Fold this sequence. Notes:
Layout: H1 11-22, H2 26-39, E1 44-50, E2 56-61, H3 101-108, E3 110-116, E4 123-130, E5 133-139, E6 144-150, H4 157-160, H5 166-183, E7 188-193, E8 196-201, H6 214-221, E9 230-236, E10 239-245, E11 258-262, E12 265-267, H7 270-278, E13 292-298, E14 303-304, E15 315-316, H8 319-337, H9 340-345, E16 351-352, E17 355-356, H10 374-381, E18 401-402, E19 411-417, E20 421-426, E21 430-435, H11 436-450, E22 458-468, H12 471-479, H13 481-486, E23 490-494, E24 497-504, H14 512-525, H15 533-547, H16 558-569, E25 584-588, H17 589-595
Parallel strand pairs: 1-7, 11-13
Antiparallel strand pairs: 1-2, 2-6, 3-4, 3-6, 4-5, 7-8, 9-10, 10-13, 11-12, 14-15, 16-17, 18-19, 19-20, 20-21, 21-25, 22-24, 23-24
Helix pairs in contact: 1-3, 2-5, 5-12, 7-8, 11-15, 11-16, 14-15
Amino acid sequence: MNKYVLNELSQDVVNKIAAGEVVERPASVVKELVDNSIDAGATKIQIKVVNGGIDLIEVSDNGSGIPKESLADIFKPHTTSKISSLEDLNNLLTMGFRGEALSTIVSVSDVVLSSKYIDSDSAFEIEYKGVNDFNIKKTARELGTVVTVKNIFANIPARRKYLKTAQTEYKKILDILYPYFLIYPNIHFTLVKDEKRVFDLINLPNTKAGDISKERIKNVLKGEFTDRMLKLFFNGNGIGILGLTAHPQDHQKTFANQYIFVNNRPIWDSGIAKAVIQGYERYIPFGEKVPFIVNIKINPDQIDVNVHPRKEEIRFLNPFRVYASVTEAVSRAVRTSVSYKIESEFKPAVFTNGSVKKKEYINRDITFSPNQSASVRDSLLFSKEVLDESSYIKTVTSENIQVDEKEGEGIRNIFQIFNKYIVIEFENDILWIIDQHAAAERINFEKFKKAKEGNIDKQNLLVPVAIPASENELVIFDELKSIFSDLGFDYKMWKDKIIINSVPVEFVNTDFKKLFDEIFSLGNEQSDVSKGANKLKEDILATMACHASVRSGQSLHREEMIDIYKRLMQCENPYSCPHGRPAVWKLKLSEIDSNFERTY
Length: 600
């Protein structure tokens, strides 16, 4: 019989276990140290990282510093100057407060801290070689604190091996820092990566913590959409809201560049994100998202900030009051700032003289098993729900074009309707309606998927194209360079731009800014650029296929329609576009007869 033994874990083991919650990766260390610098009243914070923070993280500030007598104590578990009782949580406005981070960081890395307290004449340094192995000595420092963290997880190989590439870890650090850059325009932030200064954001005059400065946002996010952002303001029900939200014309398909703050604390709350979109009702297409920066001011006793180990989420006492306030703030900004012309641009479809002016498509989730027969897949894909304009087909008149047998096997007639769909009548009493854009997307997607460097036609641009990019976006495109090289794109990163030198011939006349913006968003959606790289690559290929394809509303010649049909039939999956939208609707003559109650 096994003997039952109860062990009391040492503090070192406890700290290493806690690292799984508090210090997950280098970005977690950066977050905790920047939080402490902000709480110390710093107006200047410099962050240095080497090898994605795996080898080195150093955060220095000009804050109030730490007294000599407290240097050893701040690294003890659950020591904090922020709270002394449970009741203090009800009025908490500081960034850090639980006292877990520093003790955990010491247990998983090599730490040196030097600091000069505001009321002291001398600065002191503490160097840790273990949880209880440290040395304190005098050092030279004029103001504030600097914390140097080296070799994260070096003493826990099982954890270190799960860290990603240096570029991926650096991107995670950027994801952590961007919210601080945005919400603290009063702080001069500097970021140095591998000895290269990538951000030098001077503190803006006449600003304070929590101000949403368009100048700072432009310097950080760098997108053209920042020039058109609308101001948010709300004050009522004990809630104040400040921020900026996108002009409706800058709607997008992804959640990129969405930032939420509560009392200046960066958090994420899907209810608030949905409330922002609700404020755009009737102004943007269904299912689209927008960039926004929202700072909610609320009495601390109305929220619980202690529901997440890394303080990335909070809980509202009355969430629906908060959501309603956000929707009202956004709706008011959009109503007062957007002209009638912009509003009318996003009205529902209007059919005039047999053509569609504008209509938004709602994606359908269509999947099938490899074992399903073609007839089963046909029943899934070729239903009457596919084509919303089916009732208009019988009103369209178009010249029937005769096609030779050698041009399209079994085709009797082929023509185009609405400059949008290809209609094919087959000799076996089958009618196909092909969405010309969806079909072209599928064709190009499979072509790009099989492409490798050397077997794709490229075109050198007479004048290289420069695409503005944020530091975050540059990291994504540096990581994806080999993928684009296979596809025929040749580009380089220079300062805050991507310089495109050559492209596949299909993209010579492409709007590269629009294409790359969509690809930026795909990269931002990935939780890890390395993890799920195949999925990301396919998403990029699908986006590229869309931009290189025949558009809806484009008039086609007979030869072009036949070519689309033939190439679609050569695809591995001719049933849908790479986004999952149906490409073909098939009707039998018997089904058409049945619709008209015809029996002969």
